[in-house]
Design brief:
The complex is a heterodimer of chains A (889) and B (115). Chain A has 32 helices and 5 strands. In chain A, the strands form 2 sheets. In chain A, strands 1-2 form a two-stranded antiparallel ribbon. In chain A, strands 3-4 form a two-stranded antiparallel ribbon. In chain A, helix 2 runs parallel beside helix 12, helix 12 runs antiparallel to helix 13 and helix 23 packs antiparallel against helix 24. The two termini of chain A are 33 Å apart. Helices cover 13% and strands 30% of the residues of chain B. Chain B is built from 2 helices and 6 strands. In chain B, the strands form 2 sheets. A 4-stranded antiparallel beta sheet of chain B has the order 1-6-4-5, with helices on one face. In chain B, strands 2-3 form a two-stranded antiparallel sheet. The radius of gyration of chain B is 18 Å and the shape is elongated. The interface between A and B is large, with 43 and 46 residues. Strand 5 of chain A pairs antiparallel with strand 2 of chain B, so a sheet runs across the interface. Chain A: One of its GO terms (molecular function) is calcium ion binding. Chain A: Belongs to the alpha-actinin family. Chain A: InterPro entries: Actinin_actin-bd_CS, CH_dom, CH_dom_sf, EF-hand-dom_pair, EF-hand_Ca_insen, EF_hand_dom, Spectrin/alpha-actinin, Spectrin_repeat.
Chain lengths: 889, 115
């Protein structure tokens, strides 16, 4: 098709030649000058030249050389002989070569060239110019001549005083030449100072500049141009075509360099993103590795302060250390997605992180961290609760031990005494009664000792940290208790043995002893109750203790009466003694003295208001806790509802939102800003929660939220917002880089979300197929259709993950069939810079590309190893394919 | 997907290139495949763009990186035996809708019903 068009154009020129070319001798003179200069502009590359165009081509040798220089191809070896037939053979080789390029040489024969026929020679050179300098100019598929004309018109369009309509009269005033130069190299001349009135000056200016700066030799004579009525069209075309090659060559190289830069910049930026990803991933994984063992360690030092310290450490971890790492993780995932989008958009193979740093590895490590963290706080709190209870229990143990030990002082010595062997009968009687009293006292103490042992056992069972001391003390008490029992038995036997011999009693003392002992016991019990330790968590429990105490107080009247009775007995004895002038004898029936009872009674009465006060304080503390619970609950309920509402909003976005991507992005960013504004509420709640924990409040019935559930919800919200923003930004990136209209994007979205039934923002293969069909894809319902669909799947889901994300879907829908950034284009661009050679040098790269990109290439390009290699030749082909993860074999 | 076929490529000397472009590999998580084929080369008429390479000589290609596969093919002698899965051409453009796409859900009813 294209070659047909060429022939049309060529033949048209041919006719023109026959019609006009032979006629005008002035044109012949012009052509001779111009064509000679044109031939020399090429021959100089081979280090030679011609002087006389009709003479110097006669032996065919320079003609063949000219063709070799112009085409860059090798012609057959010329005949070296000087005979006419040698010359004819050489000219014929040249003509055959021209004919092999698809040009019909209708009226030109080798003999005429050898004979030096000027018209034929000029005709042949024109054919060569047309074929090798003009034919390649194709602008919008016009003929070569029209193409060159259109190029001139476009380039001179901005210059009002230039109007190129042909290749003769339009160029006479020289302004068109100047305009062409100024358009491409404005620094070379001051166009606006030129005037149509000075054609000779204009032409000279243009020709001088072209010769000096553009390396285009003078081919036209300014005087000829000005003086001839109509300048020779072919001469002007030959000269103008040199301008075209000079400028379009430069332009091509610039375009090629720009394209390479663009592609390399994408690669450099991608590599930077990959490095950043690797760095972030390493840091995050290292942190997780460091932190996880600490969370997995569920051992405390078994003391309350140690455990509280651990709770503070955990609070720091949860509030200060973990949140920034969570942000890092989100940033990591987002930059990974952005990178993959960029890679896809620029046709690069997907990025695979190094071993162990895949997104899934990060996610797994994070999951590991969270599962290690799970239950850590609960465990710590329950540990705290346990230790607190233990502490109270130990205190209770010590208290009971103290009472008991106080009681037990001297008992053993007393029981060991053999006093009844050398006393009087009445004293013995008293001793026996006293011993009976002691026995009942002992029995009364049995409960307390059992309680002590029970508490000690519980402390053992609950693993109290200082259990050794407890056990020693308990053992001591129990051993002593056993000895007391044995001693009591022994003494009783001794007394029984002596009873039959000794009897006398003191009624008054007996009465005192009878009353004093139980009363004393009762007081001991009361004292113990009044000093009893308690641990409660609600106001109701405190209220229970208060009413028990009130009940106790109501029995005080009775006790006071009893106390008075006992004291009266003693007073009676004293009065009697005083009455009969005698020293009051010791009461033989009891060790208790009136003073002991009085003291103890005084103590009991003092303990009552103290107990009142303790209970009131506890009541206040519980009420304060209750207020704190309500404060936390109110705040937590409002924060919780707020977060849930935003989470609902987040769940409804993705591909299911309406409006343009920017509108959606704005809406989500608005919510994100709202969240940033809401952060003080979270902080306040954290503060209240800390107060709650410090007050040892472990449950709260006014809210179903805990600090932990809210923190999780809050973080979920922030992460989901950031992820959605990133997804939308990637969609915008995709849309803009592919130039998809809002209308098209909307159709894609509608279709995708229609089939995304469970709103996971991804489709299963079946759904994807239906989606494609709904968008007009011609996938038939047969074997062929299934094979077609499998091919599409291989493109859309190369990793065979089994689902299609919205991004992959958009990418597929907008995949361009032509003019994408491919290895081929990069290679083509390098080829232009390399001047069509299969290799390139560092020097050219440094000359054509910015330093950054040039060094990037030089570092990565392998040496070129073809047969035509020169020293330092670099292989741009394998480099170009490697940019896209491909290689030629 | 069609049955795997074994193709044999021949060249006159080991300097001559096989005439096709390789893409993919384990390191790109993509199946090794033929990207393009040079006309009038040892590979023309044997391979076509889009073919997946299943094995190279006696080596299973499944776990090869791009560079390993490249070296293996490059260092083959004058004969190269490949097991490939033909894809029947990469041309999916004929399936594409003409002009701007329009979402028409009813078109896909048959697809969903046929499953």
């Amino acid at each position: 098709m294209a070659s047909d068009e060429y022939f049309d154009g060529y033949m048209e020129e041919e006719e023109e030649w026959d019609r006009e070319g032979l006629l005008d001798p002035a044109w012949e003179i012009q052509q001779k000058k111009t064509f000679t200069a044109w031939c020399n502009s090429h021959l100089r590359k081979a280090g030679t030249s011609i002087e006389n165009i009709e003479e110097d081509f006669r032996n065919g040798l320079k003609l063949m050389l000219l063709l070799e220089v112009i085409s860059g191809e090798q012609l057959p070896k010329p005949d070296r002989g000087k005979m006419r037939f040698h010359k004819i053979a050489n000219v014929n080789k040249a003509l055959d070569y021209i004919a092999s390029k698809g040009v019909k040489l209708v009226s030109i024969g080798a003999e005429e060239i050898v004979d030096g026929n000027i018209k034929m020679t000029l005709g042949m050179i024109w054919t060569i110019i047309l074929r090798f300098a003009i034919q390649d100019i194709t602008v919008e598929e016009l003929t070569a001549k029209e193409g060159l004309l259109l190029w001139c018109q476009r380039k001179t369009a901005p210059y009002k005083n230039v109007n190129v309509q042909n290749f003769h009269l339009s160029w006479k005033d020289g302004l068109a030449f100047c305009a062409l130069i100024h358009r491409h190299r404005p620094e070379l001349l001051d166009y606006y100072k030129l005037s149509r009135e000075n054609p000779l000056e204009n032409l000279n200016t243009a020709f001088d500049i072209a010769e000096k700066y553009l390396d285009i030799p003078r081919m036209l004579d300014p005087e000829d141009m000005v003086n001839s009525a109509k300048p020779d069209e072919r001469s002007v075309m030959a000269y103008v075509s040199s301008y075209y090659h000079a400028f379009s060559g430069a332009q091509q190289a610039e375009t090629a360099a720009n394209r390479i830069c663009k592609v390399l910049k994408i690669n450099q930026e991608n590599e930077r993103l990959m490095e950043e990803y690797e760095r972030l991933a390493s840091d995050l994984l290292a942190w997780i590795k460091k932190t996880k063992p600490w969370l997995e360690n569920r051992i405390t030092d078994n003391t309350l302060p140690g455990t509280q310290h651990k709770l503070e450490e955990f609070r720091d971890y949860r509030r200060k250390h973990k949140p920034p790492k969570l942000e890092d993780k989100a940033r990591l995932e987002n930059s990974f997605n952005t990178l993959q989008t960029r890679l896809r958009l620029s046709n690069r193979p997907a990025y695979i992180p190094t071993e162990g740093k895949l997104v899934s590895d990060i996610a797994d490590a994070w999951k590991g961290l969270e599962s290690a963290e799970k239950g850590f706080e609960e465990w710590l709190l329950s540990e705290l609760q346990r230790l607190e209870r233990l502490d109270h229990l130990a205190q209770k143990f010590r208290h009971k031990c103290e009472i008991h030990e106080e009681w037990a002082v001297g008992k053993e010595e007393m029981l060991e005494s053999r006093d009844y062997k050398k006393c009087r009968l009445n004293e013995l009687k008293a001793m026996k009664k006293k011993h009976e009293a002691f026995e009942s006292d002992l029995a009364a103490h049995q409960d307390r000792v059992e309680q002590i042992a029970a508490i000690a056992q519980e402390l053992n069972a609950l693993d109290y940290h200082d259990v050794a001391t407890v056990n020693t003390r308990c053992q001591k008490i129990c051993d002593q208790w056993d000895r007391l029992g044995q001693s009591t038995q022994k003494r009783r036997e001794g007394l029984d043995e002596a009873e039959r011999i000794l009897e006398r009693i003191d009624q008054l003392h007996l009465e005192f002893a009878k009353r004093a002992a139980p009363f004393n016991n009762w007081m001991d019990g009361a004292k113990e109750d009044l000093m009893d330790m308690f641990i409660v968590h609600t106001t109701e429990e405190v209220q229970g203790l208060i009413s028990a105490h009130d009940t106790f107080k109501s029995t005080l009247g009775e006790a006071d009466k009893e106390y008075n009775t006992i004291i009266t007995l003693v007073q009676d004895v004293a009065r009697l003694a005083q009455q009969y002038n005698m020293t009051p004898p010791d009461n033989p029936y009891t060790t208790l003295h009136a003073q002991d009872i009085a003291n103890k009674w005084g103590e009991v009465k003092q303990l009552i208001p103290r107990r009142d006060q303790t209970l009131q304080q506890e009541m206040l503390r519980q009420q304060k806790n209750e207020t704190l619970r309500r404060q936390f609950a109110n705040k937590a309920n409002s924060v919780g509802e707020w977060i849930e509402k935003r989470l609902d909003f987040v769940a409804a976005i993705g591909v299911h939102m309406k409006g343009s991507l920017e509108d959606q992005l704005n809406e989500i960013q608005h919510t994100e800003k709202e969240c940033q504004g809401f952060r003080p509420h979270m902080d306040e709640l954290e503060r209240i929660n800390q107060e709650v924990q410090e007050s040892m409040i472990f449950e709260n019935r006014y809210t179903q939220y805990t600090m932990e559930t809210l923190r999780v919800g809050w973080e979920q919200l922030l992460t989901a917002l950031a992820r959605n923003i990133n997804e939308l930004e990637n969609q915008i990136l995709t849309r803009d880089s592919k130039g998809i209209s809002a209308q098209q994007m909307n159709e894609f979205k509608m279709s995708f979300s229609h089939f995304d039934k469970n709103k996971t923002s991804r489709l299963e293969p079946k759904e994807f197929k239906a989606c494609l069909v709904s968008l007009g894809y011609n996938i038939r319902d047969d074997k062929q259709g299934e094979a077609d669909f499998q091919r599409i799947m291989a493109i859309v889901d190369p990793n065979r993950s089994g689902f299609i994300t919205f991004e992959a879907f958009i990418d597929f829908m907008t995949r361009e069939t032509a003019d994408t950034d491919t290895a081929e284009q990069v290679m083509q661009s390098f080829k232009i810079l390399a001047g069509d050679k299969p290799y390139i040098t560092a020097q050219i790269l440094r000359q054509e590309l910015p330093p950054d990109q040039a060094e990037y290439c030089i570092q990565r390009m392998a040496p070129y190893s073809g047969r035509d290699a020169v020293p330092g030749a670099l292989d741009y082909m394998s480099f170009s394919t490697a940019l896209y993860g491909e290689s030629d074999l | 997907m069609s049955m795997p076929v074994v193709v044999s490529l021949h060249r006159n000397n080991i300097q001559e290139s096989w005439g096709f472009r390789l893409s993919g590999g384990r390191d790109y998580r993509q199946v090794l495949s033929v990207k393009k084929v040079q006309p009038q080369s040892p590979a023309s008429h044997c391979l076509s763009p889009g073919d997946s390479i299943l094995s190279i000589g006696n080596t299973n290609a499944h776990n090869l990186t791009h560079m390993q596969a490249h070296q293996l093919i490059k260092s083959a002698g004058n004969m190269l035996q490949l097991t490939v899965e033909k894809c029947g051409g990469q041309d999916i453009d004929r399936l594409r809708p003409k002009g701007p796409v329009k979402f028409s859900p009813w078109k896909s009813n048959q697809v969903l019903n046929s499953y």
